[in-house]
Write a structure and sequence with these properties.
about 100 residues; single chain; DUF5663; 5 helices; elongated; mainly alpha
């Protein structure tokens, strides 16, 4: 999880939360972000492409993962940003009781 993400979560939760509380929320939110992005990206892949991508992910080769996404899902970065913005809104609303 990126430190920038923790800072973005800190910006949407109520003031006065401890660093540990913010970090715990960020960890939960990061998992949710991975799920949301994964669902959107996988919907754009064939079964064969999904199997290929799973193999790449299992190899922990980040450069290969990015290359695969660049080739097979143009604009994948935009999807990630969109989902992050939605998630930050959701977290902020939940924390404010909306």
């Amino acid at each position: 999880m990126a430190q920038d993400f923790v800072a973005r979560i800190a910006a949407v939760v109520p003031d006065g939360m401890s660093r540990e509380e913010v970090r715990e929320i960020a960890e939960l939110a990061w998992g949710e972000l991975e799920t949301r992005v994964g669902n959107r990206l996988s919907a754009r892949l064939t079964d064969a492409q999904l199997r290929e991508f799973e193999t790449i992910l299992d190899s922990d080769d980040e450069a290969a993962s990015v290359a695969f996404l660049d080739k097979n899902i143009p604009g994948h970065e935009k999807i990630t940003v969109e989902e992050m913005e939605k998630l930050l809104r959701d977290v902020g609303q939940r924390m404010r009781g909306e």
